[in-house]
Design a protein that fits this description.
The complex is a heterodimer. By secondary structure, chain A is of the alpha/beta class. Chain A has eight helices and eight strands. In chain A, 49% of the residues lie in helices and 13% in strands. In chain B, strand 3, helix 4 and strand 4 form a beta-alpha-beta unit. The chains are: A alpha/beta, B alpha/beta.
Chain lengths: 183, 294
């Protein structure tokens, strides 16, 4: 499912290029939640921010953080990916995600369609090894645990733990066959 | 003091640190004066202007009458009029300038954001913030003339939004915003001032159990960790600090009787460059100045 945030903002009478404040974030969240009634289990929700310039931390907290948490904890698990994020939006999302992860002791990360300033395709605090695996998977589309063990040279147990963790973060997809897929 | 009721204000409106001398006089103003003589003032920057406005509003609320401003030098009067200072209706101005003497809203208009009241109600405030951002985006190429890039405009949109939201979220009072770019000698400044006379940061965190040694340290915590008095996390001030750090600007944040200043343009590796001050004269609410110089 692809949602144009610009179109949604217009529907919600937010005409400017910026999406700011908690009330606007809550409005946007509620509007997107209503559409998620139709999402399939395991589907990727792409939020397209084309023509949106600034989103501030309040908006991010009320909208993106809640959607990412819903994707993990809701009745129907899904995946979230961001597209066409502006430089300032990326900086603001990164700051909110890092603060949340540090102080809640619970990581929050989101994948992106476009390359970010960290030279990767995600925003949030992944470790170097996690980042390596996410990038490896993005290039190879699907992998097994053994592929990663060979690629990184890390022990099987450690790799299994990292893959489970990334799956729980909803940044990779694990199929019942034990194969992992990129979003 | 030239008599019991007229207070001559010192020429201390050039920097927030300097304005402390005026805040020190607040007890005299609120206690006995009914007229402020501004004849000694040669320059007034946005933070000092907003703080003077807050003093006037406190006076009006306390006494039920308007504080009289007299002896305003022509250039200061022109500037205050241009910034909509008198439109707030807080002061009694008997000596009006002739219409011909007032500054026209021409090219100079583009270099300022006039004083705008930020309401303390969420819905109205969100509308006002949207309007301020709209005007800022239109004038940004002039206001940020010496620093201009799309990136810096977007940074400032974030900063304005984050600080203004703190007013209706935490202060329990309305506040004001003003912004201006100006030159002194060869140096150019852009200054964004936002202030309120609400409950302040210390009282806002009254029921929380964060460990801190002094009011200034609590302000520092609010700027460096995502603490909030209302919800699990509050990112606003941290975000503002991070952006000003990127821009190598300065922040002066004063609340109650404490202040924190940062001077990132002078920062050296390994130093925090946060300066904490306690035991200042009490001034209700929270006032922030964000400056860039270059």
């Amino acid at each position: 499912m692809v949602i144009s945030i610009r179109k949604k903002a217009d529907e919600l009478k937010q005409k400017g290029p910026d999406l700011l404040t908690r009330p606007v974030g809550r409005l946007m969240y509620q509007s997107i939640r209503a559409m998620l009634e139709h999402i399939r289990e395991g589907e990727t929700l792409v939020l397209d921010f084309q023509n949106i310039k600034v989103i501030d931390s309040s908006f991010i907290d009320e909208m993106i953080v809640r959607l990412v948490l819903d994707s993990r904890n809701g009745e129907i698990p899904f995946y979230v990916k961001l597209k066409n994020i502006s430089e300032i939006a990326e900086i603001n999302i990164d700051m909110v995600f890092r603060s949340y992860s540090n102080y809640k002791n619970k990581k929050i990360v989101v994948l992106t369609e476009n390359i970010c300033q960290n030279n990767a395709f995600f925003i949030g605090p992944l470790s170097d090894r996690e980042r390596e695996i996410v990038e490896f998977l993005r290039i190879n589309k699907s992998i097994t645990q053994e592929d990663i063990v060979k690629y990184t040279g890390s022990p099987t147990g450690e790799v299994a733990g990292i893959l489970e963790g990334l799956d729980a973060l909803r940044v990779i997809k694990k199929e019942n066959t034990g194969v992992f897929f990129a979003l | 003091m030239t008599d019991n009721r007229i207070l001559t204000v010192p020429n201390r409106f050039k920097e927030p640190y300097d304005f402390e001398y005026v805040i020190d006089l607040q007890e005299q103003i609120l206690g006995g004066a009914d007229e402020l003589d501004l004849s000694r003032i040669s320059f007034i920057e946005p933070y000092s202007m907003l703080s003077l406005l807050l003093i006037g509003r406190n006076y009006l609320r306390k006494k039920g009458t308007k504080l009289k401003l007299t002896g305003i030098p022509i250039n200061i009067h022109q500037y205050l009029h241009r910034m909509d200072f008198f439109k707030t209706g807080v002061f009694d101005i008997t000596d009006r300038l002739d219409e011909k003497m007032l500054l026209k809203r021409s090219s100079f208009s583009n270099r300022v954001l006039e004083i705008t009241e930020i309401p303390n109600k969420e819905r109205e405030s969100v509308r006002v913030i949207g309007a301020i951002i709209g005007v800022f985006r239109k004038r940004a190429e002039h206001i940020l003339k010496y620093w201009l890039s799309d990136r810096i405009i977007d940074y400032y949109v974030t900063v304005i939004s984050e600080i203004c939201q703190n007013i209706y979220e935490h202060s329990l009072d309305s506040g004001y915003l003003a912004m201006q770019t100006y030159s002194v000698g060869k140096e150019n400044f852009v200054r964004l001032a936002i202030g309120d006379s609400g409950i302040g940061i210390l009282k806002s965190f009254g029921n929380n159990t964060f460990a801190y040694d002094s009011p200034a340290q609590l302000i520092e915590l609010a700027m460096t960790t995502p603490i909030s008095s209302k919800r699990e996390f509050g990112y606003g001030l941290c975000q503002v600090k991070a952006i000003v750090e990127k821009l190598k600007g300065t922040i002066y944040l004063r609340s109650g009787n404490a202040s924190v200043s940062t001077m990132y343009q002078r920062r050296t590796p390994g130093s925090s460059f946060l300066f904490l001050k306690n035991d200042l004269s009490n001034f209700d609410g929270t006032q922030i100045l964000i400056s860039l110089a270059g």
